[in-house]
Design a protein that fits this description.
By secondary structure, the chain is mostly helical. It has 25 helices and no strands. The chain has helices at 3-14, 25-34, 38-45, 51-62, 70-76, 82-100, 106-114, 118-131, 138-154, 162-174, 179-197, 208-226, 229-246, 250-264, 275-289, 293-306, 317-329, 333-344, 354-369, 373-386, 394-411, 414-430, 439-456, 468-471, 477-489. Helix 4 (51-62) packs across helix 6 (82-100), helix 19 packs antiparallel against helix 20 and helix 21 packs parallel to helix 25 (477-489). The two termini are 39 Å apart.
């Protein structure tokens, strides 16, 4: 549906010199406009501008989610010099912020973090640091820097700037009288963020979860001596993040969320105004880890319906990705498509992120379940383009290859299915990963057994196929259903895989 425009935007974004760090002001304005949908887009369209400001705004809206190359600016805005264009775009960015977030200040940064607009987030923060902070009390400045650290943690892991994070941490500590408590709080806030950052790294030695486990022992010992409610809240979140990473029983994670929820009502920081609902959403997400996708979906929908129209949670990409996944898993395809169109589609038109890869994977799943392998392959290609270079993650690569297999199964191109399976298994082996321990490895091995059945036309004596029942159980969600889907398309009798 919007594959061609997304590919065009991707290619354009990746030919910019220096990538995301050197966007021109006009490109920043275009990225902001590209990230908008629904009511947000209507607000920007309603801005009353005259003269060259109106011309630039009309151009930005007219090229909505199209190529942002410099040539298009020169062709369509020939009467505006580059210097004047930058000046106008700077003014129009401010006017857009005013229209989108009338309260201004920290709320603008919250909006930009929710949209994963990292470059605009960084520059708006720098500006507020010079203009807004001098008028605040020391305590307000401390709260501001604390809020910035929290907001940076909400960005896609690919976009988190560790230098900026460290600078805000140091600024917070420098403004604090109780250094021990402030250090404890910052360490607790940073702990889950460091787990996110580990997605981008594959260093030898201890895993990020093992390192956090050692820190949590120290945090638990220090909390009674130095902690307040805010520290206890972040300690509970750090424990929950660690248990989720480790794959612990969901009831343990739920217990930590319950502890966080006990103190959430007392938090006064602006960034936590919707924290009670966010905690309920995190708890609802745990239903999915138990295989109860229907309950997770119903809870998410109910909680979203209770949110005020201006809540930043509506724009939270991570939460909306989960809701779309739940909808696909239980067969609510139209709702999943609506969520992607209204709340996630913008991810395809900003700098490539892990969330953009996941959104493209969800679109591929939708296409496959709707018996449209051609569209599925296009979205797999989009996901693979996003999942490249510095944005590459191994787990998402395996998911793309698995989806590619499913598309070729639908098209009846069995030779290509075998080729993708072979390359997937080889990739796992080159990473020295056990095929028996990795979920995607099992998927490839079971599909390989299916292909042997198709070739021989009879039951395959293959021990690996016995895992079919496990990996199609409820806890494996949409990817488990995809395995069932492939078996039916290949006409492999159920009794031959049980």
């Amino acid at each position: 549906m919007y594959w061609n425009r997304a590919i065009s935007s991707y290619i354009c974004n990746n030919r910019l010199i220096g990538g995301v760090t050197r966007d021109t002001l006009s490109q920043k304005l275009f990225r902001l406009v590209d990230s908008l949908t629904g009511e947000d887009l209507r607000r920007v369209r309603a801005i009353r501008a005259v003269g060259k400001q109106a011309q630039v705004l009309e151009f930005a809206l007219g090229r909505y989610r199209q190529d942002t190359g410099k040539a298009s600016e020169e062709n369509f805005l020939p009467n505006i010099s580059r210097e004047h264009l930058y000046e106008i775009c700077s003014v129009m960015l401010e006017r857009c912020y005013t229209a989108l977030v009338p309260e201004g200040g920290l709320a603008i940064l919250e909006f930009l973090a929710a949209k994963d607009l990292q470059v605009l987030f960084r520059e708006e923060f720098r500006k507020q640091e010079k203009v807004l902070l001098p008028d605040l009390t020391v305590e307000q400045q401390r709260e501001y820097y604390y809020s910035i650290v929290v907001l940076i943690g909400r960005l896609d892991s690919r976009l988190i700037e560790e230098d900026l994070l460290e600078q805000c941490r140091e600024s917070y500590l420098s403004l604090s009288k109780n250094k021990r408590q402030a250090t404890l709080l910052m360490d607790l806030v940073m702990a889950p963020i460091q787990l996110k950052l580990a997605e981008n790294k594959s260093s030898p030695g201890k895993s990020s979860a093992e390192k956090l486990d050692e820190k949590l022992v120290k945090f638990d010992a220090a909390i009674d001596r130095d902690g307040d409610d805010l520290c206890r809240f972040h300690l509970a979140l750090a424990h929950a993040a660690y248990e989720l990473e480790k794959g612990t029983d969901p009831s343990v994670v739920e217990g930590w969320y319950r502890k966080a929820n006990e103190v959430v009502a007392g938090l006064t920081q602006a960034v936590h105004r919707d924290e009670a609902v966010a905690m309920q959403l995190r708890s609802a997400d745990l239903f999915a880890t138990r295989g109860e996708y229907g309950r997770a979906y119903e809870r998410f929908v109910m909680l979203f319906e209770k949110l005020p129209a201006d809540s930043p949670l509506w724009r939270d990409s991570a939460l909306n990705l989960r809701l779309a996944e739940f909808a696909i898993t239980i067969g609510e395809f139209e709702h999943a498509q609506k969520i992607i169109d209204e709340r996630l589609q913008h991810l395809f038109y900003i700098f490539p992120t892990h969330r953009a890869v996941r959104a493209a994977i969800l679109l591929a799943l939708l296409a496959i379940f709707k018996d449209d392998p051609d569209a599925g392959l296009r979205y797999v290609e989009l996901a693979q383009r996003f999942n490249s270079r510095r944005n590459y993650t191994f787990a998402l690569d395996l998911q793309c290859r698995y989806l590619e297999c499913a598309c070729y199964v639908l098209r009846g191109e069995h030779d290509l299915v075998k080729a993708v399976i072979s390359r997937g298994i080889q990739l796992l082996r080159t990473r020295k990963m056990s095929l028996k321990k990795d979920v995607e490895g099992h998927y490839f091995l079971i599909l390989e057994s299916f292909m042997k059945y198709v070739a021989l036309g009879k039951r395959v004596k293959d021990k690996r196929i016995k895992y079919y029942s496990l990996f199609t159980s409820a806890q494996y969600g949409a990817f488990g259903k995809l395995l069932q889907f492939a078996r039916k398309k290949l006409n492999v009798p159920l009794e031959d895989v049980l």
